[in-house]
Amino acid sequence: MATLEETVRRALAPVFAPGSEVGEALVLDDVDVSTAGRRHVVRVVVDGAGDEPGDLDLDLVATASTAVSQALDDAGVLGQTPYTLEVTSPGVDRPLTTRRHWARARGRLVRAVLADSSSVLVRVVAVDDEGVHGTGEPQMVKGRPPRAKDVGAPHDLAWADLVRGEVQVEFRRADELDDPDDLTADDLDDLDDDELDEDEDEQ
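Below the sequence we write its predicted structure tokens.
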């Protein structure tokens, strides 16, 4: 018997079908249905259809949200139970398990978990039919310094050896930048609460 998530996925398939307005740019990455009181909470995760890294267009996500809501209402898969719909992009904690996931993570620092239970920290450079190609990075992992042989060393990871990837959150302080105006939205999001508190105390 199909789960509710599987039923919702089938109902949303036409929204993300190739050739549709939404399906040209977005794919359905995940569906989760939970219960909050007397309501369902339907969380739909969408991601870019291509392999290019980058943030999703918010207008397109809004278009997808409208189309998803209409499809759910038309299909009636949730019955008479009211629901709250959340359409969102993948968070940084989404494991990299497909070629598209890895391709969209190009330029990111990733902990690659391997089939032999070991792991390696790499910055993803390229993805092809053979696997993932990157370089070792001088980064701390859970408080431990990197092994010297891994820093800057090329890493060619075959698909057969890869279990998953875990994107690492990287922090840059404003005082490490040549020009504070170079701060991006991601940099501002990455400043931790302590740094923000220090700025407030100085004012």
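Residues 4-88 form a domain with the GMP Synthetase; Chain A, domain 3 fold (CATH 3.30.300.70).
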